[in-house]
Amino acid sequence: MNNFSIGKKIKKYIDSKGLKQSFVSEATGIPQPILSAMLNEKRNIYAHEYALICKVLGVSLDTFVPDEQVATKEAI
């Protein structure tokens, strides 16, 4: 999974919904500087962080990743 392009997509989504990064940071428990680094392609996004972000944004885990990169229970 290309974490950097995912960060860009998440940032674009947050901006498009008129949300603040501070809201996402507080709701996920991810410190603001860390979240900012992830969204600005300066830090990888770990799976547990990605899951928290998707939950707070109310989107499915496959929203920001290409179909071929989504692991399903059947594939595991």
Automatic annotation (TrEMBL):
GO function terms (MF aspect): DNA binding
Q: Which SMART domains match?
A: HTH_XRE
Per its UniProt record, what PROSITE patterns does this chain match? HTH_CROC1 (PS50943)
**CDD domains per record:** HTH_XRE (cd00093)
Residue stretches making up the HTH cro/C1-type domain: 10-64
Would you tell me the protein name for this molecule? Helix-turn-helix domain-containing protein
Native source organism of the sequence: Natronincola peptidivorans
